[in-house]
Write a structure and sequence with these properties.
By secondary structure, the chain is α+β, with helices and mostly antiparallel strands. Helix content is 24%, strand content 16%. The protein has three helices and four strands.
């Protein structure tokens, strides 16, 4: 914590103390929660402590312009359907086999 810039010490230290990452215990429940495969948007707490809706980066992610391209696309999806969007039911079938 001593490495944070002095004017930001308290806020950065608190952020580091309370940081959480998305997680599920696949050994207990092999089926991913909807937050991973089915929800295109999530509600999170913003930097101001208020709820905020964001695009779910685990559902799909669009790379910023000028960054890496994957197979001529700037967007990732899981098990894409004919429209190029995530096919949630096919993902569930694959995971639950």
């Amino acid at each position: 914590m001593e490495k944070y810039p002095k004017p930001l010490d308290p806020s950065w230290a608190e952020a580091a103390r309370t940081l959480r990452a998305p997680y599920w215990d696949w050994a207990v429940d092999v089926y991913p929660p909807d937050e991973v495969i089915a929800l295109s948007e999530l509600t999170i707490l913003g930097l101001d402590g208020k709820p905020s809706t964001i695009k779910n980066p685990l559902y799909s992610f669009t790379y910023p312009s000028g960054s890496i391209k994957i197979e001529n696309s700037r967007k990732t999806v899981r098990h894409p359907n004919s429209a190029g969007e995530t096919d949630v039911e096919e993902v569930r079938k694959f995971v639950w086999q």
